[in-house]
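User: Hey, quick favor. My workstation is busy. Could you predict this chain's structure for me?
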Amino acid sequence: MKSKVIFTGLFSLLFLAGCQQNQTTTPTSTTTQTSETTVVSSTNKSENSSTANSVTSSSEASSSQSTNPEIKVSVERAIELFQNKYPDAAVTSLELDSDWGSYFYKIEGVDDENEYSVRINANDEQLDAENPERLDRDEQNGQKKSEDALDVSNLISIEEAGKIAVEKVGGGTATDWDLDKELGTTYWDVKVKNGNQTTNVKINSQTGEILSTEIDD
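Assistant: No problem, here it is.
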């Protein structure tokens, strides 16, 4: 009888010990699984954040390349500066290039008596004016002014003119812009460099219509 009681007691102890061991092991497995899930979630968040930052950086880089950082003064502003200096003068010529190491506008104009020429820094609006030159007698009294005056109203921007010219050439970079007139039509003459080839594209300065293209030899 005592042996039976002792055997039953030992069996109960072993059974209880087994149950306690199972209960202790189960939370450990759950904790490990939860930890792994947290790690995976953190990794995914990190990857998503990295991807978003990459897309943002690419977008910013693309935006910064779309406009020449050296040209901060618009053509309208350059003309306004010229006209503020010489209120009675009509613009007869306008160029934008980097022949002096950085981008400058060179604007010429005339009134009834004199011819004027200025250079405007396309980065900071600094204006340098040359001494006026007296017109020849047959050019005075509005003669040259009416013949050579450019139509500077509603001009398409240099950015738009450059884009049209580059698309026409099929690639490259717009480097120089000249505003000129032929047969009564004011136009942009845009120089595009594409590899070793340079092309001049003439564009109606009000409508954006391409008038002609010419490849430099």
